[in-house]
Specification:
It is a single chain. The chain is α+β, with helices and mostly antiparallel strands. The chain is 30% helix and 23% strand. It folds into 2 domains: 86 residues, Alpha-Beta Plaits (2-Layer Sandwich); 141 residues, Cytidine Deaminase, domain 2 (3-Layer(aba) Sandwich), CATH 3.40.140.10. Helix 1 runs antiparallel to helix 3 and helix 6 runs parallel beside helix 7. The radius of gyration is 21 Å and the shape is elongated.
């Protein structure tokens, strides 16, 4: 479409269930026709040459308003429901998401409009101190844009996420179990979302640190993830519970899972090894 703004696009990774590729392509054609008919934009489907059941769906929107209208359209929702019955869907690029000043992206901060805690009206006018009333532990540094941007070596990534998870753990609401857990989830574009366990008097409504981190990231529009670090005050590695493994797999895929205690890392695993034979949308 000539009217489509090609600077606004969304890319979705679609892993189709065995024997469903022809059905998926027919559904994609329906979605494309609907996009054009309602002037939302256009759509292109690209098959992965190395993985025949994997497709990349590229949608180029007419404009941001058209993209927003697409997502709330009832016809779209019906087509999407059919898609989820035959494939696992991962949103990789959201080209119409408004800029988020808190995202930890690469590049020179001086050339971007990212918020800085020392700039503008957000600047503190007095020192309010830390709630804990003590100084930061030796070697522990605040996780922020500069810390993410300048990583001279691969190990720096794990150190930053470990610190973020350790700090998140301090906020845990664990009055019943007294077992505090912190998690730090990294997206493929370098953003970091943390979580801690939040317990409830009914116990059954308790939510774990891993799920808090994942839900925070998903609610901010992130759909592709690289790794998660989980910290607990235990000598032995503390892996995620079964519910968290299910959520991490369904929304994050085969993540790298790094386990740690307050002294340092205790082990690294791939999620597929922690959750063999997973149940997901491909089985529905």
């Amino acid at each position: 479409m000539d009217i489509s703004d090609r600077t606004r696009l969304s890319v979705t990774l679609v892993d189709v269930a065995e024997g469903k590729d022809s059905e998926f392509l027919a559904l994609a054609a329906e979605i494309e026709a609907m996009l054009v008919r309602k002037k939302f934009g256009n759509l292109e489907v690209i098959r992965d040459e190395g993985r025949p059941l994997r497709f990349y769906v590229v949608r180029r929107w007419t404009d941001a308003a058209a993209a927003n209208a697409f997502h709330v359209d009832t016809e779209v929702q019906g087509l999407t429901a059919r898609l989820y019955q035959m494939a696992r869907v991962t949103h990789v690029v959201n080209g119409v998401r408004p800029p988020d000043a808190l995202r930890l992206l690469g590049g020179d901060r001086r050339t971007r409009g990212d918020a800085d805690r020392r700039m503008g009206f957000d600047r503190r006018v007095k020192n309010i101190g830390r709630p804990e009333g003590d100084r930061r532990k030796s070697g522990e540094r605040r996780l922020g844009p500069r810390r993410i941007e300048h990583r001279p070596e691969p190990d720096k990534e794990a150190v930053d996420l470990l610190v973020a998870a350790r700090r998140a753990r301090e906020h845990a609401e664990a009055d019943y179990s007294h077992f505090k857990v912190g998690a730090a989830l990294e997206t493929t574009d370098g953003a970091v979302f943390t979580g801690c366990n939040i317990e409830n008097a009914t116990l059954g409504l308790t939510i774990c640190a891993e799920r808090v981190a994942m839900f925070k990231a998903r609610s901010e529009g992130h759909r592709a993830f690289r790794r998660i670090v989980i910290v607990a005050d235990t000598r032995e590695p503390t892996p995620p519970c079964g519910a968290c493994r299910q959520i991490l797999w369904e929304f994050g895929g085969n993540l790298e899972v790094q386990l740690a205690n307050l002294s340092g890392p205790t082990g690294t695993h791939q999620l597929k090894d922690l959750l063999p034979l997973p149940f997901d949308a491909r089985l529905l």
